[in-house]
Amino acid sequence: MRLGTKTVAALLAAAASVATAASGATANAGPTTGPAANAGPAAKAKTRVHPEMTLISFHVPGTKGWRLSVSTEISGKAKRQKIGVEAHGPEDESVGYEGVHARVGADGTIAARLPGLGRIDVRFEQSHERAIEFIAPKNCTGDGPLVARRGLFRGTIEFHGERGYTEVARRSARGEILETPRQVCRDTERHIRPIGGGPAEPRRLHALVVGGPPDNHLRFTATSFPPGPAPSGQSSPTVYFDAYYTMHRNGIVVFARADAAGGSAKFSILEAPGAPTEATVEPPAPFAGSATFRLESPTTASWSGDLSVEVPILGKIDLTGPRFWSGLCTGTTCTETLPSGPGLGLLIFG
Question: Is the pLDDT of residue 114 over 90?
Answer without folding.
Answer: yes
